[in-house]
From TrEMBL:
Residues 460-535 form the AMP-binding enzyme C-terminal domain. Gene3D superfamilies: 3.30.300.30, N-terminal domain of ligase-like (3.40.50.12780). Keywords: ATP-binding, Ligase, Membrane, Nucleotide-binding, Transmembrane, Transmembrane helix. The chain crosses the membrane at residues 89-114, 246-268. This is 4-coumarate--CoA ligase. SUPFAM superfamilies: Acetyl-CoA synthetase-like. Belongs to the ATP-dependent AMP-binding enzyme family. GO terms for molecular function: ATP binding; CoA-ligase activity. Residues 46-409 form the AMP-dependent synthetase/ligase domain. GO terms for cellular component: peroxisome.
């Protein structure tokens, strides 16, 4: 047998017995051969028939492709005049907006590095990211300005969506002013290569506190090619952007990838079910990317939704974050018969891609994360022995390919424990690959809690709980929830003489973390179960918590 030019590969599963590697069954990616290329130039030079790039769902204000690329050039020229150079880090703190991609694309076109952060993050969380990534400039909106000035009063700021900078804050200009600048052919143009760093997005990785994921222009270009190949858009499609742009899912789809196809992207600054559905109707949206809890809510309220909204243009829903069950898929197809469900699997460390289902038939492999993305290889590795496993055997999923990150920023220890010397990324997900090459996620080695698509690292919440003077020990686990998927639950050991209550524990955490990280259930226990090396036996606690369900 021979496939992809390699001998000994089973064309059904993609598995090669001689090296225990699973090869993608998708058509390989064409990657640009020229090394001197930034992702912004790559996207802007793609031929397409699209006219409108972005629409603000709230106001109807739209940006044409001609205006978008002019704005990107103007902002890049302004940044260059301000002294922003290749390798400098620029922070962006903003909800979804039509200006979000302008900032990202302008920064990356210079070879500078964009780092984004969640608008829901607390000042403490933002200060931590600023201390780690060391940005020399920040972009934000007026209402979020106090968070940055409190986190780092010395950081120069460009205000988005403001005509006049407020007094007192260290605001150097507004984005509006930058976009008025005539792009100059004389500006400093440094040579940007595909291996240079483009983005620094913060992820919990496989365990522990948040880490900066270093992705190159090559990673993003490969991701764009995968997005284009997956959707095969022959007509100009309209996408609704509900997922956050600061997150890899939103950045992949809306701030970069779909622009290369000439798609129209309708942007909602925050998720509201009514706003999303009325935007589909108003703007004739064809694609709706979302996370499973939103899809489940659409299913549960389908009769009322179909009675109130005309969703006749919608033909595809893209779900990421967790595999969908048979009941959800078939229920959704029954209620929305003209809509195809597509699923995807990816990590920040793999630039948001890794596997996908590209048709309803593929999604009907119930519980699958899909087939490997183009040009991506996988191994299933026994976590105990380190041995590579064949089809239908559970082990940790390892991925390798052009979208895999360069490493974690200024964290060699975390990088070497996640990326091996041959470029394999240990995903922390326990999976198996079946006889037809479909990946199924069985469990998580990594201890992340998935709350409404957001990743919540238990270790971060445990460290915070242990700072409370009345708490002796604590463990945080995922607690199943129909609407959210999972939410954080804490097991707490009180100090002798303490009567700290459930609400006091929850309030203590709520005051210091973003809303999606809040503890929503507390149980008190005499001791936290641990193995001989001191590692929390989370599975025992999950069993205890769910035994009463």
């Amino acid at each position: 047998m021979e496939e992809n030019g390699r001998k000994g590969i089973d064309p059904k599963s993609g598995f090669c017995k001689s090296n225990s590697i699973f090869y993608s069954k998708r058509k390989p990616l064409p990657l640009p051969p020229n090394n001197t290329l930034d992702v912004t130039t790559f996207i802007s030079s793609r031929a397409h028939r699209g006219t409108i790039a972005f629409v603000d769902a709230a106001t109807g204000h739209h940006v044409t492709y001609a205006h978008l690329w002019r704005a990107v050039d103007s902002v890049a020229a302004s940044l260059s005049d301000m002294g922003i150079r290749k390798g400098n880090v620029v922070l962006l703190l903003s909800p979804n907006s039509i200006y979000f991609p302008v900032v990202c694309l302008a920064v990356m076109s210079l070879g500078a590095i964009i780092t984004t952060t969640n608008p829901l993050n607390t000042t403490r969380e933002i200060a931590k990211q600023i201390a780690d990534s060391k940005p020399i400039l920040a972009f934000t909106i007026p209402s979020l300005l106090p968070k940055i000035t409190a986190a780092d009063p010395s950081l120069p700021i460009v205000l988005i969506d403001a005509a006049v900078p407020p007094e007192g804050a260290k605001v150097v200009t507004t984005l509006d002013e930058m976009m008025k600048k005539e792009p100059s052919s004389r500006r400093v143009r440094e040579r940007v290569e595909q291996d240079d760093t483009a983005t620094l997005l913060y992820s919990s990785g496989t365990t522990g506190p948040s880490k900066g994921v270093v992705s190159s222009h090559r990673n993003l270009i490969a991701m764009v090619q995968i997005v284009l190949g997956r959707f095969k858009m022959e007509e100009v499609e309209t996408f609704i952007c509900t997922v956050p742009m600061f997150h890899i899912y939103g950045l992949v789809a809306f701030a970069t990838g779909l622009l290369a196809a000439g798609s129209t992207i309708v942007i909602l600054s925050k998720f509201e079910m009514h706003d999303m559905l009325s935007a589909i109707e108003r703007f004739g949206a064809t694609y709706l990317p979302l996370v499973p809890p939103i899809l489940v809510a659409m299913l549960n309220n389908a009769d009322a939704i179909n009675a109130k909204y005309k969703l006749r243009t919608l033909h595809s829903v893209l779900s990421g974050g967790a595999p969908l069950s048979k009941e959800v898929i078939e229920g959704f197809v029954d209620k929305y018969p003209n809509v195809t469900i597509l699923q995807g699997y990816g990590l920040t460390e793999s630039t948001g891609v890794g596997a996908s289902t590209d048709s309803l038939d593929e999604s009907r492999r119930y519980g699958t994360a899909g087939l490997l993305s183009p040009s991506t290889e996988a191994m299933i590795v026994d976590p105990d022995s380190g041995k590579s496993l064949p089809v239908n055997r559970d082990g940790e999923l390892w991925l390798r390919g052009p979208t895999i990150m360069k490493g974690y920023f200024s964290n060699e220890e975390a990088t070497t424990s996640t990326l091996d010397s041959k470029g394999w990324l240990r995903t922390g997900d326990v999976c198996y690959i079946d006889d037809d090459g479909f990946i199924f996620i069985v469990d998580r080695l990594k201890e992340l809690i998935k709350y409404k698509g957001y990743q919540v690292p238990p270790a971060e919440l445990e460290a915070l709980l242990l700072t409370h003077p009345e708490i002796l020990d604590a463990a945080v686990i995922p607690y199943p929830d129909k609407e959210a998927g999972q939410y954080p639950m804490a097991y707490v050991v009180r100090k002798a003489g303490s009567n700290i209550s459930e609400s006091q524990v929850m309030d203590f955490v709520a005051g210091q973390v973003a809303p999606y990280k809040r503890i929503r259930k507390v149980a008190f226990i005499s001791s936290i179960p641990k193995n001989p090396s001191g590692k929390i036996l989370r599975k025992d606690l999950i069993k205890l918590a769910t035994s009463k369900l």
